[in-house]
Amino acid sequence: MEDPLKLCADLNAIFRRQSGGWLDRETLHRVRALCQAAAEAAGDLQCRLELGTIERWAAQLHSHRDPRVDVLREQVLLSLERVERRSRA
Q: Are 81 and 89 in contact (CB under 8 A)?
């Protein structure tokens, strides 16, 4: 089983490196795979729910132009922080 903290770090790197707001199927595919792997590795229901939300927000960020790009990215990063905190506990 993979380490959920490493998977979250990989997700964090993607969202810090790319702002989104355009169609990017490759990034969206990678984010979905990481979210699903992290959800499987997480032993916590709340973490799984957060990761599902991150996956939905990523779909908005990387599938079309969205005027809320900065807000969505910030929400994703905050959700990742919550998942990391819960995974460490």
A: no
How far is the C-alpha of 8 from the C-alpha of 29, rounded, in Å? Answer: 15
Confidence of residue 1 (pLDDT cuts 50, 70, 90): low
Please state, in angstroms and rounded to a whole number, the distance separating the CA atoms of residues 70 and 83: 20
Report residue 47 as tokens: 């973490």
d(CA 12, CA 81): 9
Write the CA distances from 40 to 29, 48, 49, 64, integer angstroms: 17, 8, 11, 28
- Kindly report the length of the chain: 89
Q: What mean pLDDT do residues 24-37 have?
A: 94
